[in-house]
């Protein structure tokens, strides 16, 4: 006897009437018990009602897996009411993870062969929702037959099922190629929309299908022209636009067919111009069609005038009140700025206005586009706008804005003085957000501009006297005061206002930097070195400097203590050599990428050694997370540091670039190249440590867009020990700008053949890219 239970409507009312979650669970548990009992008793008349209640319980998030077999029974029933609930249950309760879904394949095949449209529709919907690859292979021929059925209801569902099959099993594309050409003659918009989607899937997954469907481009153009020129239709029009969903689908398919194909692109040029000029953009439907038209124009080989029209449409989008439309316009213009720079440049004032948007996503996109629009002709105006934005922009945008300004100034600076002023303003406004190499670049720039030494040291001294919280600014100022302090005291500089500075004021300011709690260890190292150099540049007594140096001889910071001890020794034992040792640093010529990398590495070694040491534990922990190679272990200890050369202390004392590495006898190796980004490896094996291999990774960018957020990670087998040094930066400027270098130290105690796996992550052309590859062709000299 079947236990009486609630009807579906009564169950819904009782569940909604529950005041607490406990009451709801109690009602559902009680009813599930009744449903189980009914299933066990095998009541065929009320099985579909019990399953309907179970599906409602499943929709609320409660377990309903015990109803899976009942779905199969209902599907196999000849009654339509049973089949309807059974197929619905199969779509909700079954998927590819359960083996039970394969049991309904035969039932679906039988229902597809019936002439009842409603039953065929149920079977097709279920197959397109949860059909696995095995089911698709078994039922593909049945679906193909239904594509040409007289009933438009069945044909529409068969087309959508074919789309699902192609996504699951791309090799079935040959089966559906012939029916698609006939379906394009349909007048039913639903079938036509499904057919366009099916052709799109086929073209994206099969080169043969792409070549086949290029023949139907004139027919697609005719369909779209009919949609654009037809009058208002109540059935298909949305906001005055005739079936925008179908228009968008056709435009996407045209974009695929016309890409890198001159003949197809020529066929659709006139139509795209007609759509671009006749579409109403007062509503979202028209804007969607117009935006898809712009993307199609930019992706095919369109005429130059048509591309300018597309850029102007995006410029109008920037004036739209809808934030979403403005966002997609900024994103699209950013993609087009490399290929149509002059056309995008006309909308520069509007783009700059978007910087002041309160919406964070809009202002970020506007910032990226503004930086891409900077060139040699507008660098002064654009930099002024960007600096104004930097002063008021949110903190999460300051790093990108500051880095972008510095890169633009480096590439397009009209004069060295303007370049120095620009960097100083950025350091003063957002010094803590600048790139790691900003200090080294500015000191190099100042050192090269001999005629601006007096101007630079005065500007930096004034900025330092006003604020010592911006650490990069303090570091550059301390370096400049140490190098050119004598020019600061002379008081003769025509390019700045008269500034009278006393020796005691300069020393007091540097002591203030040393004693400040906001000064980083590297900054104190700059200040201490500056004081030491001033001992040879000031006319007065150097006893005050000697006292400060001796105080820091017992500092807790090892780097600062080492400097102070060396400088104190110089005062006591080598005072006769002090003036010669502390001379001004010679100019370092900007040579190739290798010279720049070595110069930057030596500067970091002599002025920021503490920062490098602090990054080594982080790099070791990173290896635990990578696990890129089988057997890679993060338990390996880092290789021992290189034994310092006898002249190492003297290099620190001289504050000169470190001794160059011995000339490499191992050939360099290029391991990666994509869209202008190249990765080269150079190798050095120190003679004193034959088991140690030094690999210098050099990344260069010759493309037309900057590579940002560049990260290079490496892993080696378990028998090796790997240590990653900090990279020189994370941004690669376009057109062969300053490269990014990173040192890898690999200890190979067994002298086994080296295998190296690299993972690169970066942003390029507005897209995030990740590449993982293995390097197996390393020269034998790297391990033998």
UniProtKB/TrEMBL annotation:
Highest taxon, organism lineage: Eukaryota
Annotated ranges, domain GAE: 664-779
Keyword Membrane: yes
Keywords of this entry: Cytoplasmic vesicle, Golgi apparatus, Membrane, Protein transport, Transport
Signal peptide as annotated in the record: none
Compositionally biased residues, Basic and acidic residues: 597-606
Renumbered residue ranges of the record's region Disordered: 592-611
Single GO BP term: vesicle-mediated transport
InterPro entries per UniProt: Adaptor_Complx_Large_Subunit, AP1_complex_gsu, ARM-like, ARM-type_fold, Clathrin/coatomer_adapt-like_N, Clathrin_a/b/g-adaptin_app_Ig, Clathrin_app_Ig-like_sf, GAE_dom
Name of the protein in question: AP-1 complex subunit gamma
Record organism: Acinonyx jubatus
Name of the gene: AP1G2
């Amino acid at each position: 006897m079947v236990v009486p239970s609630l009807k579906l409507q009564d169950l819904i009312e009782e569940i909604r009437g529950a005041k607490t979650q406990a009451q709801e669970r109690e009602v559902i548990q009680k009813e599930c018990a009744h449903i189980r009992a009914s299933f066990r008793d095998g009541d065929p008349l009320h099985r579909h009602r019990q399953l309907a209640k179970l599906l409602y319980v499943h929709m609320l998030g409660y377990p309903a897996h015990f109803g899976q077999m009942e779905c199969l029974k209902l599907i196999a029933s000849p009654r339509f009411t049973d089949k309807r609930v059974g197929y619905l249950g199969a779509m909700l309760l079954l998927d590819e993870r359960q083996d039970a879904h394969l049991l309904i394949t035969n039932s679906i095949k039988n229902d597809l062969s019936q002439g009842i449209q409603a039953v065929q529709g149920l079977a097709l919907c279920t197959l397109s929702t949860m059909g696995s690859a095995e089911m698709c292979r078994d039922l593909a021929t049945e679906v193909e037959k239904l594509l040409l059925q007289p009933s438009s209801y069945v044909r529409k569902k068969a087309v959508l099922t074919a789309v699902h099959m192609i996504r699951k099993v791309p090799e079935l594309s040959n089966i559906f190629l012939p029916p698609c050409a006939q379906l394009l003659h349909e007048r039913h918009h639903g079938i036509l929309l499904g057919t366009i989607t099916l052709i799109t899937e086929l073209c994206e997954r099969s080169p043969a299908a792409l070549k086949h469907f290029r023949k139907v481009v004139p027919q697609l153009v005719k369909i779209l022209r009919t949609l654009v020129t037809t009058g208002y239709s109540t059935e298909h029009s949305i906001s005055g636009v005739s079936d925008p969903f179908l228009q968008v689908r056709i435009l996407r398919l045209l974009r695929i067919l016309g890409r890198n194909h001159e003949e197809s692109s020529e066929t659709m040029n006139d139509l795209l111009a007609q759509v671009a000029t006749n579409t109403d953009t007062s509503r979202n439907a028209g804007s969607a069609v117009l935006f898809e038209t712009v993307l199609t124009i930019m992706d095919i080989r369109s005429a130059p005038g048509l591309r300018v029209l597309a850029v102007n449409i995006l410029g109008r989008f920037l004036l739209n009140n809808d934030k979403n439309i403005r966002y997609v316009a900024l994103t699209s213009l950013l993609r087009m700025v490399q290929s149509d720079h002059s056309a995008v440049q006309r909308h520069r004032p509007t783009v700059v206005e978007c910087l002041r948007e309160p919406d964070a996503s809009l202002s970020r996109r506007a910032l990226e586009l503004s930086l891409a629009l900077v060139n040699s002709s507008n660098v002064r105006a654009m930099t002024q706008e960007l600096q104004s934005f930097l002063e008021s922009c949110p903190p999460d945008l300051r790093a990108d804005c500051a880095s972008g300004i510095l890169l633009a100034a480096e590439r397009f600076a009209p004069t060295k003085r303007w370049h120095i002023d620009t960097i100083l303003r950025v350091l003063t406004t957002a010094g803590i957000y600048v790139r790691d190499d900003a200090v080294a670049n500015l000191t190099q720039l100042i050192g090269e501009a001999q005629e601006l030494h007096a101007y630079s040291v005065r500007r930096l001294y004034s900025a330092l006297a006003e604020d010592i919280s911006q650490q990069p600014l303090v570091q550059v100022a301390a370096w400049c005061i140490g190098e050119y302090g004598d020019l600061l005291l002379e008081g003769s500089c025509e390019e700045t206002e008269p500034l009278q500075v006393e020796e005691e004021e300069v020393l007091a300011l540097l002591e203030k930097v040393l004693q400040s709690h906001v000064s980083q260890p590297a900054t104190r190292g700059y200040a201490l070195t500056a004081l030491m150099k001033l001992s040879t540049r000031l006319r007065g007594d150097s006893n005050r400097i000697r006292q400060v140096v001796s105080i820091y001889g017992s500092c807790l910071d090892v780097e600062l203590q080492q400097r102070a001890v060396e400088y104190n020794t110089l005062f006591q034992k080598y005072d006769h050599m002090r003036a010669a040792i502390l001379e001004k640093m010679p100019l370092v010529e900007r040579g190739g990428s290798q010279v720049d990398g070595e110069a930057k590495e030596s500067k970091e070694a002599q002025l920021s050694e503490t920062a490098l040491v602090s990054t080594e534990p982080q790099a070791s922990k990173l290896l635990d997370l990578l696990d890129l190679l089988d057997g890679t272990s993060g338990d390996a200890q880092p290789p021992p540091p290189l034994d310092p050369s006898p002249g190492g202390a003297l290099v620190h004392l001289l504050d000169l670039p470190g001794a160059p590495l011995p000339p490499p006898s191992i050939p360099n190796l290029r391991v990666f190249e994509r869209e202008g980004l190249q990765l080269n490896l150079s190798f050095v094996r120190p003679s004193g440590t034959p088991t140690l291999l030094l690999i210098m990774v050099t990344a260069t960018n010759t493309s037309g867009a900057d590579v940002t957020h560049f990260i290079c990670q490496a892993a080696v087998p378990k028998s090796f020990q790997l240590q990653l040094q900090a990279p020189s930066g994370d941004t690669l400027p376009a057109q062969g700008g300053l490269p990014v270098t990173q040192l890898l130290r690999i200890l190979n105690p067994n002298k086994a053949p080296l295998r190296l796996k690299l993972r690169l992550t970066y942003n390029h052309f507005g897209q995030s890219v990740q590449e993982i590859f293995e390097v197996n062709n390393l020269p034998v000299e790297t391990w033998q």
